Amino acid sequence: MTTDQTTTDATAAETPLAPTVDPRLLVREAGFAGYIAEFRRKMKSGDLGSVPVVLGLILIGAIFQGITGDFLNADNITNITKWIAGPGLIAVGIVFVLLLGEIDLSLGSVAGVSAAIASVLSVRSGLNEWLAVLIAMAVGIGMGAVHGFFFAKIGVPAFVVTLAGMLAWMGLQNSVLGDKGTVNVINDGVIAKMDTYFLGDGDVIFTWAFAILGIALFAAGQLIDSRRRSAAGLPARPMGEIALRTGVIAVIALVAAYMLNQDRGLPMPLVVFFGIVVVTDFVLRRTSYGRQIFAVGGSVEAARRSGINVAWVRISVFMISAGMASLGGLFIASQQGSADKLLGGGSVLMNSIAAAVIGGTSLFGGRGKTWSALLGILVIQSIITGLDLVHVNQAIQYMITGAVLLGAVVLDSVSRRTQKSSGRG
To answer: What is d(CA 205, CA 227) in angstroms, rounded to the nearest whole number?
Structure first.
């Protein structure tokens, strides 16, 4: 070996190798073309995100507006934003359970029991209505703890535990309501106002303030996330993309505020539902507890070996789902003006499960977000409202909703298969 070759080899050995960077992390450096390439890559790999449900909402709105001419009227939009709260909150709880790769069949009955307890205590027993609501929700959370205990500690499959719970709590609901079977909520009471109250009694300033606050929080979250990633040496969204994303959200929020203000203003159900979606999304994405839920849903054994208390995570998730169902049941009672033996039955549970799945939460665990509940229930309620406007009977509504649910599950299965084949599953 010559002296020049030895010197060259030594220099090469002393020069550190450039770190290998995943080209997907550099896509934003390519400008607009990079975003197009990233979007195509995600579509080909099965990472569809919220694209199908957003396109579905646009298509549903266009079809029913074309048929009826009234679907996009302000009063109809307001009603949809009110009606999604009850089943939507149940769907939020279902998202938590689905992230574990499990299912909870009892949530409709939990919603019915909670509404029955709150109504009976406040109307028949004369208990303070706020206290009655808190007791009802505490009972619902306790039911979830029972389900979680038998599932996590005893090892009974969640399907069997919650099926037994559904039957048991249905019987408890009938027992609480008694022979009459129906308890009307107090006029202008706490439960009644959950559906009928509009912030500021319809003052438009509240709707605009809510929209602007939402836009500001979204922009702040994007900026904070970008700075944290930059400080950690990770690729972060440039200011141009943050401005574009914020602009899209601003258009949606301000158009929605304008539509609501053409009717009665900002409905309380929408505020509560949206607030809970934001809080639960933060919990899942920004806290160690949320990461533990995803870890358990991805692989129970891996989560256990990493030191996660799997049993506690499972029990707490069932408690959260039951708590959401309790609150959802109160909103449903408010919407119909009473608690009865049918509350929580019928299509309530199926629509809530369908909402979570249609919105993008996987039935196989480990993938999803609470925004899925909001997007999914918007799809379900828009279909139901549109079919009501064209006077389609309930039997056909069930069949159409079932077809939409099947389509969402098929899409989820195909997406998972595509991601696995592309090495991302």
So the answer is: 33
Phi then psi dihedrals of residue 340, to 5 deg:
-140, 180
Distance (Å, rounded) from C-alpha 59 to C-alpha 414? 22
Measured distance CA(378)–CA(355) in Å, rounded: 8
Q: How far apart are CA 147 and CA 162, in angstroms?
A: 6
Going from the C-alpha of 146 to that of each of 102, 134, 192, 225, 353, the distances in angstroms are 16, 18, 30, 38, 21
209 within domain boundaries: no
Find the length of the chain: 425
Give me the pLDDT at residue 424, please: 52
The region of weakest confidence among 180-184, 257-261, 273-277, 395-399 is 395-399
Beta bridge partners of 338: 184
Q: How many domains in the chain?
A: 1
What is the DSSP pairing of strand 338-340 with strand 182-184?
antiparallel
| CB environment 188-216: b (16+ within 10 A), e (fewer) | ebbbbbbbbbbbeeeeeebbbebbeebbe
Q: Has residue 213 been placed in a domain?
A: no
What rounded mean pLDDT belongs to the chain? Answer: 85
Domain of residue 347, residue span: 52-197+267-419
Residue 26: pLDDT band (50, 70, 90) is very low
Residue in the structure block whose two tokens are 């389900």: 147
What is the C-alpha to C-alpha distance for residues 259 and 263, in angstroms, rounded to an integer? 7
Whole-angstrom Cα distance, residue 318 to residue 158?
A: 10
Is 55 in contact with 378 (CB distance < 8 Å)? no
Q: What is the pLDDT of residue 37?
A: 67
Strands (E) across 293-418 are located at: 338-340
Threshold 0.85, pTM exceeds:
yes
- Residue closest to 336 by CA, chosen among 3, 179, 112: 112
| Residue found by looking up tokens 């601003």 in the block | 250
Rounded CA-CA distance 173/343 in Å is: 9
Q: What is the CATH number for 363? A: 1.10.3470
**51-93 pLDDT, tens digit each:** 778 888 899 999 999 999 889 999 999 999 999 999 999 999 9
Residue at 18 is within a domain: no
Q: What pLDDT is attached to residue 341?
A: 92
Q: Which three-class secondary structure state does DSSP give residue 182?
A: strand
pLDDT on residue 38: 65
Determine, yes or no, domain membership for 155. Answer: yes
